[in-house]
Amino acid sequence: MDLLKPNPANSCPLTPLTFLERAATAYAESTSIIYNATTYTWSQTNRRCLQLASSIASLGIKRGRVVSVVAPNTPAMYELHFAVPMTGAVLNAINTRLDARMISVLLPHCESKLVFVDKLFLPLLVQAIAMFPAGTKPPALVLITDDEVSSSTTVNFHHTYEDLVKRGNPDFTWVRPDSEWDPMVLNYTSGTTSSPKGVVHSHRSIFIITVDSLLTWSVKRHPVYLWTLPMFHANGWSFPWGMAAVGGTNICLRKFDVALVYDLINRYDVTHMCGAPVVLNMLSNFPNAKPLKNPVQFLTGGATPPAAILLRAESLGFVVTHEYGLTETDGMVATCAWKPEWDKLTALDRAKLKTRQGVRTAGVTEVEVVDTHSGELVKRDGLSLGEVVVKGGCVMLGYLKDKETTSECIRDGWLHTGDVGVIHSDGYLEIKDRLKDVIISGGENVCSLEVEEVLYMNDGVVEAAVVARPDEFWGETPCAFLSVSGEVVEEKEIVEFCRERLPHYMVPKTVVVMEELPKNSTGKIQKGLLREIAKSMGSLSGNAN
């Protein structure tokens, strides 16, 4: 046995790009993409990606160079997930919700040589390039247009997307990675500081997370997938490549619109969707929502979905699976795997169980919670708090040009997530907060997510976020920021509502009602900004009551 070693037949680098190659044969005439009046088959999508990759390579883009894209969920955005790495280059999908200042930081940071930009976002990109540091060479631009957006422009650009596709070689021999550890994608985290963190993933990690996500979500052949999750968000949680692996149909959507989403679900018999809890909230609160004619599998993550929202969504026919992942893993590493015996519980109890992040996925080595001081595993009692840590093949290579932050995040053999959680006696993980969001009131740890969960149980609450406010007596106390439905919600009413359902020290001492809670570029509530607002209110004249 000691003579048996890896050989050329069994050590080919793993890459998800092979999924498209296979789809072009196994699902050749099956529909790959639907977008308005445009429809492609898998053989056509493969051909278009090869032609596009050929043209990108002809522009002088070499292995390891970064190619960026600023676009919504259109066919071009989907095709670029294959075409760019097919040249050996690294795909950088930029968040379309970022402002020009931030984009002007990201592009020079990654030294992007070529940017594909949707016509709608061309003014934003031009503004960003104008803000580049002096002496920085701007990248070449490729304009993406479609029937939804006028193609006329006064801005000079180097090429158009469809011209590159048309002139490319359909017999192009795509560039396979020399090693499966070669970088494939670069995703920037959703922070808003001038010090971006660029997460670099290899072909290997993307292959593993893609296969793992399909297995975990039990996605079978020929699903109909509606793109309500932005592809720029951790590469759509790996599902651009995943849909090719199972021959799915991608329903592309330029802009999220609740009425249109319901129309597309019914028109195309959509089977699968992904999105943050805010998307579930919008779908379940839509005034004209009617029960779906067929169940739709909905994968949610990015924040803990309140039980009340899960309950409303599932009453409409969405079958919700809760997952946990982060940009540094490019997809899910834990999921609330459902147990048959839970079907006997009440709808509310089932919804509460689904708020847990669950157990590690099959392709992840370990997901644990460790004490932040000792580094030891916490007790599995559902009470002992610690930091969530991850180990597995989907973990990033590191942060681009930032060894110090990489070493802070990946240490002692673990990816440290910065999330606070507990492990229940059945082994299921439950996220309680971010490390920076834990409120310490009178020596007690208050997890903001637990308070928010109760607030969402109030029918008048649409959005809720809880942060620390300085308190002269307790040190810190919970401060609740709410957006509410049309009815007036009194602070006293909210406080009493929480008193009936929470320990005394967890009840918000301050309630602030806003028209809408501030959100960052990925739709997450900006707790940092709310903390500053709470701090600016000054310390409460604390007392023991």
Oligomerization status of the protein chains: single chain
What's the CATH architecture of the largest domain? Answer: 3-Layer(aba) Sandwich
Top-tier CATH class of the largest domain: Alpha Beta
Percent of residues in beta strands? 25-35%
What is the count of distinct domains? Answer: 3
Biggest sheet, open or closed, and with what strands and sense? 9 strands, mixed
Report the helical percentage.
25-40%
Mean pLDDT: 91
CATH homologous group name of the largest domain: ANL, N-terminal domain
Helical region count? 17
The general outline is globular
Uncertain regions spanning at least 5 consecutive residues = none
Alpha-carbon distance between the two ends: 72 Å
In spatial order, strands of the major sheet run 2-1-11-10-12-13-14-15-16
Fold-level CATH name of the largest domain: Rossmann fold
Structural class given helices, strands, pairing? alpha/beta
Descriptors:
single chain; 545 residues; alpha/beta; Rossmann fold; GMP Synthetase, Chain A, domain 3; 3 domains; 9-stranded mixed sheet; 5-stranded parallel sheet; 17 helices; 27 strands; globular
Structure notes:
The structure is a single chain. By secondary structure, the protein is α/β, with parallel strands linked by helices. It has a 9-stranded mixed β-sheet, sandwiched between helices. A 5-stranded parallel β-sheet has the order 4-3-5-6-7. Strands 17, 18, 20, 21 and 22 form a 5-stranded antiparallel β-sheet that branches. The radius of gyration is 24 Å and the shape is globular. The model has no long low-confidence stretch (mean pLDDT 91).
